[in-house]
Amino acid sequence: MRIGIVCYPTFGGSGVLATELGKALADKGHSVHFITYQQPVRLNVFSANIYYHEVRVPAYPLFDYSPYEVALASTMVDVILNHDLDLLHVHYAIPHASAAYMAKQIAQKRGRNIPVITTLHGTDITLVGRNKMYEPVVTFSINESDAITAVSENLREETFKWFKITKEIEVIYNFVDMSRFDKKPIDAFRKVIAPNGEKIIIHASNFRSVKRVEDVITTFAGIHPKVPSKLLMVGDGPERSAMETMVKDLNLHDDVRFLGKQEQIEEIYAIADLFLLPSNYESFGLAALEAMAAKVPVISTNAGGLPEVNIEGKTGYLTNVGDTNAMTQKAIELLSNEALLQEFKQHAFEQASHFDIHNIVPVYEKLYARFCRMD
Ligand code: GMT
């Protein structure tokens, strides 16, 4: 098949998932055309089956806001017609689903029918999409998609709760390439981070308020006096600077490292003992799944789709949003019991393997085959 993939090219979970999907489809012999405003961060391989089409938005002094969606729709039309695409798969509803609707209409006028599949990822529904300024367009363009998928049962339910959706939404869970996270810890790296054999705790996110990153620091401040430990903070975003200040104020700066955005996240997970994810909401929690694939147990909140990924008392623990006391107690319990920690690590790995790329990509292929154009 010739597949167009539209996504955000950044470190966000939806862009990561879309890029990994495109790479896996290309490996299976499909032609994959990425249509994005910059090269996706995880598109770090050469493949004869992968094409990258950059959306360029011409500036003009009249515009306070450059019309990105128009440029995106025009690029989609161009790629559909010039590369004879069989379907478009857009990740994250805003503005990709509405741009795809526009592209589909234009292509139709030019004699081409192109099915559009929209995958909902989370904040496009639960945070941004619900905003009155976007809701009518989001509802319309989701309903106009030929197929709609959501990355968890919870996100499917949330979408029906907040939008008048007239079509079925299929749940296709996010996936992880287990082989990528099957890494031996680099001893030298572990020694630099934890020279005295301290436990290594990790958090990775885009440091937005929905992640409640301050709860990671508060939890670590509670763990640290009881269990010799170090905290690695991976990623970057609006809350980072405030978090660095909080760490200094708590006098934890020798034990907490802010690593910024990291491409080789698997090397970091390989030395970690515990992943913390205290989010207000996660449709799925792809970062937690990647940690689990590297045998790192997770203590997360029980918000959104997290209980579908992280199993209470088995792969980690689930606590109420904002309950940093519970998070701290559970972390101390786990980190101070080596046998329990090893058991949780194994369960985390086994649970992650249910979401292996080889199980999920064929589900997308089956979906594509159902909607592939007939003209
Ligand atoms: O978490 C974010 O803020 C980024 C966002 C995205 O779209 O890139 O992540 C969402 O999609 C991921 C991939 O499907 C999910 O794993 C995340 O849970 C989801 N984030 C939220 O729902 C907050």
From TrEMBL:
<feature type="domain" description="Glycosyl transferase family 1">
    <location>
        <begin position="190"/>
        <end position="349"/>
    </location>
</feature>
<dbReference type="InterPro" id="IPR028098">
    <property type="entry name" value="Glyco_trans_4-like_N"/>
</dbReference>
<dbReference type="InterPro" id="IPR001296">
    <property type="entry name" value="Glyco_trans_1"/>
</dbReference>
<dbReference type="InterPro" id="IPR050194">
    <property type="entry name" value="Glycosyltransferase_grp1"/>
</dbReference>
<feature type="domain" description="Glycosyltransferase subfamily 4-like N-terminal">
    <location>
        <begin position="11"/>
        <end position="180"/>
    </location>
</feature>
<dbReference type="Pfam" id="PF00534">
    <property type="entry name" value="Glycos_transf_1"/>
</dbReference>
<dbReference type="InterPro" id="IPR023881">
    <property type="entry name" value="Thiol_BshA"/>
</dbReference>
<dbReference type="Pfam" id="PF13439">
    <property type="entry name" value="Glyco_transf_4"/>
</dbReference>
<protein>
    <submittedName>
        <fullName>N-acetyl-alpha-D-glucosaminyl L-malate synthase BshA</fullName>
    </submittedName>
</protein>
